[in-house]
Amino acid sequence: MFAIVYAKLELLTEEERKSSIICEEEEEEEEEDEDENHENGKFTRRLIMNMTAGGVELRKLLFVLTYLVLAAFSNWIALAYIHDFVGRKALPDIVFSVVPELLWTLKVGDAMVTLCSTSFFTLLFLHKNRIIIIQRTAFILACLYTMRTLSLLCTQLPPGYIDNNKRCRGISNRTSQQWGVIISRVLSQAGKLGFQDMDDEMLCGDLLFSGHTLAMVVSSLTVAYYLPDSFRSLRYIPRVLSWIGMVCMVISRTHYTIDVLFAYWLSTAVFNIYHAFCEIDLTNRKLSVLYRLWIMRIVGWLEVDITPGRIENRLEFPLLVRLYKWWSSPSRNRYCTQNSNCHNQKQQQLSISSALPI
């Protein structure tokens, strides 16, 4: 009996043993890859963001995105409401007294906003830690748009155009404002993403805090902060575009000079305060003077799972390319072709070991 068993064991040649070892190693490597990519069933998340830089919880991401949408709509609702309360006589401005009204520069300013936003979204698409950037930028924009809504409701400035009565829409009855009129105005603004059409009558009173400047400054600051050092020279492009856009906003009399200055100061301050807090170590954040601001309590909650300091600024190929590379990887194909052979060898080993006497 023992002779038969030992004879069967000798049938496993040295080559077969090596093959079985190779199969086991490949299976172990494949299991490690699957554990890494499918951890907690979140393979998609692995494709989206860099796990080494910390994680972004889905509920926090949904919170900031919802906050951003509500803040944007609050701007449009405020503008739709205050339009009927805004005067039609322009206020004096130092730039208006020197430079004549050039309406065509508004289209240049809108183009600068579009280019700055395009550079921002291009960075998001290519950055390795795009989800972290989305969460941070969305919260910063939401806070700024909330400030803008409050400024619109508190103080209404008349538009700075020469012919305000011609450029602004008609005023409805203040005492009996109809909800249908306000809703149609809000939907019109939402459809245009806040842009005004110079060739048509517009809603007036969208002043004191320039939304165009807000978008351009936040976009340029984000690109400058998160662009890798190897592309350092590209950081100045959105910055120059934003300055051109701010000048065009004033020359076209879409905004007063103070509107642009307030938007620039507040956007720069909020962006830098947020990121300065993110660079503080977790153990020292509550001791920081920034933590005295109540808004920093929310920032601390958003950033608690993200590694303190500056995240790794590295670009990578888009998601579809990464998914294609994973799908066509040699290790995956080799595993699919050799899986059956390894399974057969394991079955053979199990049958032999079962024949051993106890």
What do these coordinates show?
It is a multi-pass membrane protein. It is found in: Membrane. Residues 204-276 form the Sphingomyelin synthase-like domain. Mean pLDDT is 78; it is low at 36-53 and 352-358. The chain is mainly α and 358 residues long. The chain has 14 helices and no strands. It folds into 2 domains: 2-45 and 320-354, no CATH class; 55-311, no CATH class. Helix content is 63%, strand content 0%. The radius of gyration is 30 Å and the shape is globular. Helix 2 crosses helix 14, helix 4 runs parallel beside helix 6 (130-154) and helix 6 (130-154) runs antiparallel to helix 11 (257-278).
Shape: globular
Distance between the termini: 12 Å
Q: How confident overall, as mean pLDDT?
A: 78
Q: Which structural class matches the secondary elements?
A: mainly alpha
Strand content: under 5%
Low-confidence runs = 36-53, 352-358
How large is the count of helical segments? 14
The biggest sheet amounts to: none
Helical amount: 55-70%
Computed Rg: 30 Å
Q: How many structural domains are formed by the residues?
A: 2
Family: Belongs to the sphingomyelin synthase family.
Region (Disordered): 20-39
Organism: Acanthocheilonema viteae
Pfam families: PAP2_C
Structure summarized in a few sentences:
With about 350 residues, this protein is mostly helical.
